Amino acid sequence: MNEPHEERISVEIPGLERILRGGFLPGRSYLVSGGPGTGKTTLGLQYLASSSDGNGLLISLGESERNLRADAHRIGLSLDGTSVIDLSPGADAEPEAAYTLLEPWEAEGVDIRSRIGALFPDGPPERVFIDALSQLRQLMPDAYQFRKQVMGLLEYLNSAGTTVLYTAEQGSSADADLRYLGDGILELEHRENRRILRVLKFRGSGFSEGEHTLRLGDHGMQVFERLMPGEHRRTYVAEELPCGIGELDRLSGGGITRGTVTIISGPTGVGKTSLGLQYMHEAARRGERSVVYTFEESIGTLRTRCEAIGIPVSDMMEKGSLSIDEVEPLHYSPDEFAWRVRTEIEQQGARMVMLDSLAGFRQSVRGDDITAHAHALCHYLSNMGVTVLLVNEQSAIAGEELRPSEDDINYLADTIVLLRYMELDGGLRKAIGILKKRTGDFEKTLREFQITREGLRVGAPLYGLQGILQGIPSKIATLDATE
Questions:
Q1: What's the CA gap between 438 and 443, in Å, rounded?
Q2: Per-residue pLDDT, 483
């Protein structure tokens, strides 16, 4: 959310602009710190290319101008209007002279301020990117002289209204010095499973704290803001949403409540996804849009088997009341996935979301705490009035141990729907029950659950049986009235 009535310098990286509340503050200096290959130069090039008039300056102390322009062109950026001061090794016959920040009366050689003045006699441009300022530390006698010269250059640029980005190699002695000299610090890091961006300092403005996912690709840098659910909210009516199966709606006390989280739990093949799609079919009848994120099953398979039991998935998709998003979990971080969900909610108006399944979502987390990410996503969806269905596959088909979820996320559920196999009269049958519903009363019975060509069927309560949840029910002996 941008801070009102405050001018910002755009960088045209949407996720980053949201994190910085609209962009950089004009006339300030910002350090971009990170290891090799973390995206420091890419961020700076996009910053220069996003200038509305192209009036920017690139000061390069590492890569040659030729290479930098080629790199920018490779990710679709134009630096045609950008001036370049190439101080990279080999660009000048006297490298030490090229690197100096000293004023002409302090040392011989060419200084950066003179070069800027020669290119811009009326004053420095609005945007300057220095890559990499940390390399100058090697040519300074001590840290004091290095800080003194850098402070002089930054003051010269900032006093003219120039916004400066400069980079440093993380962990270097220069990086430690430069962290104290700017108005902000953006830190980039490349981990085994993802790239991240952190804002450590941003004077004069608020910003989104924490670790945000970063992706480098053919079109440059993308930043996916960490989801902060408390910042998003819509007004909605917490009404009961039926599934269209009378017996199940009676079992659940009228349906599931809008804006709540429901875990549909059961072993493989028991009908969890089909049940979730049934709720979405009824939502389509109300004119509402739903979206399924499937981590394991292809869209074609899901559509075929749902239509075989009377759920018209193809028709729903054609009319726009249903979207099925096939997600490769190892390709997305939790922040990227949350961004995809937010796009559906905030731009497409989806009112019901199903994650199929939690096991697939766990793969996208890859080493992080699934509880924290699931909590943030579900809290956001609930705040937006979206009804959430979480499909959880139990590893055991039958047995005494009853665990609605393999992860410690049961506390997220407002409702828990349990599906179980049971062996009865020599055949394999299914049962359904409600274990929990925070938002109202429900029927404390188990009913038979069937998947037929005509659709899902829920039978009468299974009175007279015990041990259903263990999968091997037995009839309850009745007392003889004469005894």
A1: 13
A2: 44
Q: What is the pLDDT of residues 143-154, one digit of tens each?
A: 888 888 899 999
pLDDT for the residue 423? 82
Q: Write a three-state SS string for the chain.
A: CCCCCCCCECCCCHHHHHHCCCCECCCCEEEEEECCCCCHHHHHHHHHHCCCCCCEEEEECCCCHHHHHHHHHHCCCCCCCEEEEECCCCCCCCHHHHHCCCCCCCCCCCCHHHHHHHHCCCCCCCEEEEECHHHHHHHCCCHHHHHHHHHHHHHHHHHCCCEEEEEEECCCHHHHHHCCCCCEEEEEEECCCCEEEEEEEECCCCCCCCCEEEEEECCEEEEECCCCHHHCCCCCCCCEECCCCHHHHHHCCCCEECCCEEEEEECCCCCHHHHHHHHHHHHHHCCCCEEEEECCCCHHHHHHHHHCCCCCHHHHHHHCCEEEEECCHHHCCHHHHHHHHHHHHHHHCCCEEEEECHHHHHHHHCCCCHHHHHHHHHHHHHHCCCEEEEEEECCCCCCCCCCCCCCCCHHHCCEEEEEEEEEECCEEEEEEEEEEECCCCCCCCEEEEEEECCEEEEEEECCCEECCCCCCCEECCCCCCCC
Residues β-bridged to residue 241? 256
What count of other Cβ atoms lies within 10 Å of the Cβ of residue 346?
12
CA dist 132 to 42, 73, 87, 303, Å? Answer: 12, 20, 10, 53
Query: Residues 6 or more apart from 145 whose CB is under 8 A from it?
Result: none
Exposed/middle/buried for 337, CB within 10 Å: 0-12, 13-18, 19+? buried
Q: How far apart are CA 183 and CA 170, in angstroms?
A: 17
Flag whether pLDDT at 376 surpasses 80.
yes
286's CB contacts (< 8 A; 6+ apart) are none
Summarize pLDDT for 219-269 with one digit per residue, the tens: 999 999 999 998 899 999 999 999 999 999 999 999 999 999 999 999 999
Q: What is the pLDDT of residue 299?
A: 95
Whether the per-residue pLDDT at 103 is higher than 50: the answer is no
The two tokens of residue 160 are: 């003219």
Residue 400 has pLDDT above 60, yes or no: no
Q: How many Å apart are CA 163 and CA 76, to the nearest integer?
A: 23
**Cα(102)–Cα(452) distance, rounded to whole angstroms?**
83
Q: What tokens appear for 44 in the block?
A: 């700076």
